[in-house]
Amino acid sequence: MENVAIFDSPGKGRGLKATKEFWAGDVIFSEPSLAAVVFDSLAERICHSCFRRQDKLQRCGQCKFAHYCDRTCQRAGWTEHKQECSAIKAYGKAPNENIRLVARIMWRLDKEGSVVSDIQLTTLEELEDHITDMQEDELKEFKVDIHNFLDYWPRSSKQHTIDVISHVFGVINCNGFTVSDQRGLQAVGVGLFPNLCLVNHDCWPNCTVILNHGKIELRSLGKIAEGEELTVSYVDYMNLSEERQRLLKTQYFFDCTCEHCKNHTKDDLKMAGREVDGVKPSDEQVKEATDFCFEMLEKMDKARLNGDYHEVVKICRECIEKTEPILADTHIYLLRMWSTLSEVQAYLQYFDDAAEYARKMVEGYMKLYHPNNAALGMAAMRAGVNHWQAGLIEVGHGMICKAYAILMVTHGPTHPITKDLDAMRMQAEMELRMFKQNEYVYHSMREAALKNKPMAMMHEPKSVEEGIKNLFHRRK
């Protein structure tokens, strides 16, 4: 941790600053979790040791709750699972993920003390719990968790006061970090990373966080000067400044005063009307189209949640047909429609449509996001794959190269998804050379290949935006 130092950040309390100069893609520090658990909803589909998604997992023969890839993963996870296993058996069931995480944290601290490694910069006692800032309904759920924790916590384990237990619950409530699967594409669990808790928020940050081979990496998004504060964004920049401030206040208990919030930077673009030949729609037209979009987004989300993807396509098309002539290509509701339609059409294997809307989505994102934003990189990757699948190899290759350049900064060369993208990039380059030599031969060979090996079905679209946009876990 020689690259960073704790300091008093004006208006924010403790923070971390750089003790040397960094450039885009530099790893400032990496950190293993103090403890981590799989989400309740994915307990049977994700390995509880390596957090990989597997079709067939082996269940723990004792507690019947924990699942593992194989004996190797089970042995690797036994140190953390040993006391948990006995507690689940005695309790009669597995408690929720918050209770399981608090228990794992406390068992580890009881065994190893408040500082569990040489790189740990802070103790749990020093971290904020924000219990006094909680709303009444949140506090009620909080107290239920503590009550259930006391029933779950074994009598044979070291006993702790309610204040100590409450503090740990409070810390994970506002500092729990989302743990992703091995590809980095889906949030599958939650963990606590003490050093990461010291990194403050900025809506236009100079760092990003990624999980890579079981550790989080804090990576620089651009040049960072020695002595400069290190920041990450706790919420998605695609939200309007007022919405970001609301989320940060209700979820993380602070008022954001960053330049982008104070100046409402890019809010005008996110709600803009489409200008054609110097003529803009009226404010009334933009408001009407925005309201209609919002209404259709609610219907679309409901249809997607029910798995009715043809209905999703129908709703998106109706909305786009009515609002696309009025709303700018940076309007965040229109961008959501394009994003959803491209994802669902790819799943239904209408690749030409998927490519068209993915391209529009990326073009809009490029005007709003930081050039090295991970969400932009993932969107460009998706668009590149859609164009490749549609046989539009020139645009596909360009999008894949753009995505690769961004992910080399945000994820680094050793991350599994960057390696996959590099393989795609080389394949697309080879096909592009073939295409430029003879378009007819290229398309003939492509058609023959697809007849012998049809396109595999895409992953089913998720009902909520996953992982990459929401760094920190919050109980819903």
Automatic annotation (TrEMBL):
One Gene Ontology cellular component annotation held by this UniProt entry: nucleus
Gene Ontology molecular function terms on file: histone H3K4 trimethyltransferase activity; myosin binding; zinc ion binding
One of the GO BP terms on file: heart contraction
Protein EC: 2.1.1.354
SMART domains: SET
All copies of domain MYND-type, residue ranges: 47-85
Keyword Nucleus included in the entry's annotation: no
Domain SET: 2-235
Catalytic activities: L-lysyl(4)-[histone H3] + 3 S-adenosyl-L-methionine = N(6),N(6),N(6)-trimethyl-L-lysyl(4)-[histone H3] + 3 S-adenosyl-L-homocysteine + 3 H(+)
Enzyme class: transferase
Entry protein name: [histone H3]-lysine(4) N-trimethyltransferase
Lineage: Eukaryota, Metazoa, Chordata, Craniata, Vertebrata
